[in-house]
Design a protein that fits this description.
This protein is mainly alpha-helical. Helices cover 73% and strands 6% of the residues. A three-stranded antiparallel β-sheet has the order 2-1-3. A hairpin with a 5-residue loop joins strand 1 and strand 2.
């Protein structure tokens, strides 16, 4: 049976839509009518999902994508259903019925159609790479091979949830400083483009010699009102050029390496990428994925190009027979310690301990937890210092503007006396 997406009219004249399984389009229309609906359109999901075909023949759903939250929820629900003893196709049917978004419903229906056609779950997900990342597909394949897909999916759901939580913590920590900075910038622009010109008009009538600070503020106000768009255009041009430059691999590698040397931001970036890499390796190795394939998938989760090059170099060394800890510690250059790796020593030592004791997944998970806690702690400290610093900076800027306005007034009062 194939999956069909339908749109139909209810007795009240409202439009209803959903997914239904049938042997043919005619059979699907009959099933829709059996529900008391008048079918408008009935289309096979496989054809609709094809949209614009990719080079590998996988379907692409017209720019839509499964969100990280939806992926975590679907994985947790599927793991629970399989753990309760339901067959895979029935579990997928239950998820289709519960899906709230059409894209999720269509995606799951396409996966179920492939599974009913004889494909493995990993094979069905392979045709939908845009929605299911490499680590996800690799672990599902390992779970099917081991015959314990439910347990593996449960671990995978925990991994996705923890990764989403870590990303959310970092993002939310910088939301307030970003809002404060935006409001401060708008207030300053408003003062310079509206308040200062009103006061300057009064000074022009007095023919008074103005203080240097006031003259500078008047010049800045005139510039923003007359040529402020040039400044905005220049900033936008610089941002666009920088974004294009980051697309060049050599520049991106140098920039990412430089970011790691920054006093505070460098440690944040290192901790974030290390936590992602270690947790990915832990779940993959613990799920029975071969170490080389796990390293390749883990390397794709590292956003810093310089650190990713260390992973690529480690893959080569492990393939040649080196231990994982020694390969990652050697870095991207040299073989005899000519360059120290960019991953923190605590990860290397825990890897070495895990390899020597045969308990590598647990040691990797411990390293990921430690780096995640370190990232959270450093982020909280940084934001707790950044917030008052931004407020203080805002106060200083407003104070300078107020002084630029008040100084001529004070001089006028002194002349009158």
């Amino acid at each position: 049976m194939a999956a069909f997406r339908f749109e139909a009219l209810t007795d009240a004249g409202k439009t209803d839509s959903g997914v239904i399984e049938a042997e043919s389009a005619r059979h699907a229309r009959s099933l829709v009518r059996a529900r008391g609906l008048a079918p408008l359109t009935v289309e096979p999901i496989s054809a609709d999902a094809a949209g614009t075909a990719q080079s590998d023949g996988a379907p692409r759903l017209r720019g839509r994508k499964l969100s990280n939250t939806e992926l975590a929820l679907l994985t947790r629900q599927l793991a629970s259903l399989l753990g309760a003893g339901l067959p895979l196709e029935r579990a997928l049917s239950a998820l289709i019925e519960q899906a709230e978004r059409n894209h999720v419903r269509d995606l799951l229906a396409g996966v179920r159609t492939d599974v009913l056609g004889g494909s493995t779950l990993a094979g069905a997900l392979e045709r939908r790479k845009r929605d299911f990342p490499d680590i996800y597909r690799a672990l599902v394949a390992a779970g099917e091979t081991s015959g314990d897909l439910g347990r593996v999916l449960d671990k995978l759901a925990t991994y996705v949830e923890e990764r989403n939580t870590l990303t959310s913590k970092v993002t939310m920590a910088f939301v307030y400083p970003a809002i404060v900075s935006t409001v401060a910038l708008l207030v300053v622009i408003g003062l310079l483009t509206y308040v200062v010109p009103q006061v300057v008009a009064v000074f022009d009538q007095t023919k008074q010699k103005l203080p240097t600070l006031t003259l500078v503020m008047i010049w800045l106000s005139d510039f923003l009102r007359a040529d402020g768009w040039l400044l905005g255009l220049g900033v936008a041009g610089i941002g666009y050029g920088f974004k294009r430059a980051l697309g060049v691999e050599s520049f991106r590698a140098r920039f990412d390496a430089w970011v790691l040397t920054l006093p505070v931001m460098g440690r944040l970036v290192q901790s974030l990428n290390t936590a992602r890499f270690a947790s990915t390796l832990a779940i993959l190795v613990g799920g029975g994925v071969p170490i080389l394939r796990a390293l390749e998938a883990g390397g794709r989760t590292v956003g810093n190009t310089a650190m990713r090059r260390d992973v690529d170099a480690a893959i080569v060394r492990v393939r040649e027979g080196s231990s994982l800890a020694r390969a990652l510690a050697a870095g991207a250059k040299g073989d005899g310690g000519t360059k120290r790796g960019l991953f923190p020593p605590v990860l290397i030592h825990l890897m070495a301990s895990g390899e020597s004791t045969g308990n590598l997944p647990e040691m990797l998970e411990r390293a990921a937890t430690g780096q995640g806690d370190d990232l959270t702690r450093r982020t909280m400290v940084l934001t707790s210092l950044l917030e008052p610093a931004l407020i203080l900076l805002m106060g200083v800027i407003v104070l300078v503007i107020v002084l630029a306005v008040l100084l001529p007034i004070i001089e006028i009062n002194q002349l009158v006396r």
